[in-house]
Design a protein that fits this description.
By secondary structure, the chain is of the alpha/beta class. The protein has 2 domains: about 120 residues, 3-Layer(aba) Sandwich (Rossmann fold), CATH 3.40.50; about 90 residues, LytTr DNA-binding domain (OB fold (Dihydrolipoamide Acetyltransferase, E2P), Beta Barrel). About 30% of the residues lie in helices and about 30% in strands. A 5-stranded parallel beta sheet has the order 2-1-3-4-5, with helices on both faces. A 5-stranded antiparallel beta sheet has the order 10-9-8-12-11, with no helix packed on it. A hairpin with a 2-residue loop joins strand 8 and strand 9. Helix 2 packs across helix 3.
Amino acid sequence: MIKAIIIDDERLARNELKKLLMDYPEIEVVAEAANAGEGIEKIEHMNPDLIFLDIQMPGKTGFDLLAELDRAPNVIFTTAYDEYALKAFEVNALDYLLKPVEPKRLADAIQKLHLQDDRDQGGAGIPMNVNRSILYEQDQVFVKDGERCWFVKLNEIRLFESVGNYAKVYFASNKPLILKSLNALEERLDEKMFFRANRKHIVNLRLIDKIEPYFNGGLLLELKGGEKIEVSRRQTVKFKEMMSL
């Protein structure tokens, strides 16, 4: 059973979508919310697999809501505003439905959801355990930097770099800033996958291309994106212990 929450400030739109979803017995609408604040509360409390999310709502937008979540469920945007289409796909949402929602388009979106679940086999498509504070490789996070937004799987992020109270997140050719300290991130990341190389950098161990000896008994890591990161002398000892047989 796929647990879903509908977040939309229009009651009629929520009712219409619920009616359409009755044709999909595998999807159970466990809650509704009329604004972003309510939506965040319900998501954290009920841990859905899927949210149908309006973008333009009074107060915070749907994008703002996603930026406040630690871990993003699958998202299907539902909105009357066509100019948001491009933005929704830029964030790599599962799908984008224009209101009034057409049954055929909803069917396409649900099919994408099933394909995603089949691909993930235990990734972000399965119910998220609310007590699990560590983020694992298949978890997807939502990154918002100004007007730009992305969904990113943790295993696609190769580097976190400290910039004051912010952290720069490196994935593909993007380097957005998020308002999180490196220490706060380190607590949430799986240490089998992410390693604190020095005071300013956390690297994805699986995306290291080359390792070379460096000054003062340290190491120099070259990542798949070409970034070169120095491992401090103290962390080099830990790194060698971790990576040895």
